[in-house]
Design brief:
Radius of gyration: 21 Å
Number of strands: 8
Distance between the termini: 66 Å
């Protein structure tokens, strides 16, 4: 015959009820703003930006997405991630591509508005892809970086019906009011658009 288990104490029941009422994001080990990504591009590493560095939204319902904006970070991959995760920085991008191997990190859900373009209208309607490197150091623009970034851009274009051309896949410097020059003069746009169209 199985022995009857003792009933939980009143204190244990109240503690359990209190924990059930705590929002999941406040429990230890879960970062605020760390909502899981909604991706259609599988090979990404979820590295969430601080919730202080983007605006929650419900795109494309709340805002149509009709642009991909290409950035070059002027930083190393790890430093760029650290910047996006620092709540004091007030900057983020949806994706970050590493130079050496084309590894892709997602930092902001596509449904949310990343703060990458320096122009609110363009932020609301675009997906920002940041790339490790510097605008004047072409050795950062490796084959792996170009190929993986182009695959990501092609997937975004397919998902949102964005034409795969230079009018809709633009550099940060093309954003109205931008004071940035990225991706810079050594970024190979002809190669990149060709890769996007053949991805």
């Amino acid at each position: 015959m199985e022995r009857a288990k003792p009933l939980p104490s009143r204190r244990r029941l109240l503690t359990g009820a209190a924990l059930a009422a705590v929002p999941y994001a406040l429990l230890p080990g879960v970062r605020a703003g760390a909502r899981p990504p909604a991706v259609g591009y599988p090979p990404v590493d979820w590295q969430p930006a601080s919730s202080s560095n983007f605006t929650e939204s419900d795109r494309p319902r709340a805002h149509a997405v009709d642009r991909v904006i290409i950035h070059v970070a002027q930083e190393r991959y790890s430093s760029t991630l650290a910047t996006f995760q620092d709540p004091r920085q007030k900057v983020s991008a949806h994706y970050l591509v590493r130079s050496a191997d084309g590894h892709v990190a997602q930092c902001v859900r596509e449904a949310d508005i990343a703060w990458h373009a320096g122009n609110w209208d363009y932020n609301t309607r675009s997906v920002g892809i940041e790339h490790e490197g510097w605008v004047d150091r072409p050795f950062y623009f490796t084959d792996a970086l170009y190929k993986q970034s182009a695959r990501l851009t092609a997937a975004l274009c397919a998902r949102y019906g964005i034409p795969r051309d230079r009018e809709h896949i633009i550099g940060h410097r093309q954003v109205p009011g931008a004071d940035h020059t990225d991706p810079g003069p050594v970024w190979d746009w002809t190669r990149y658009i060709r890769l996007v169209n053949f991805a």
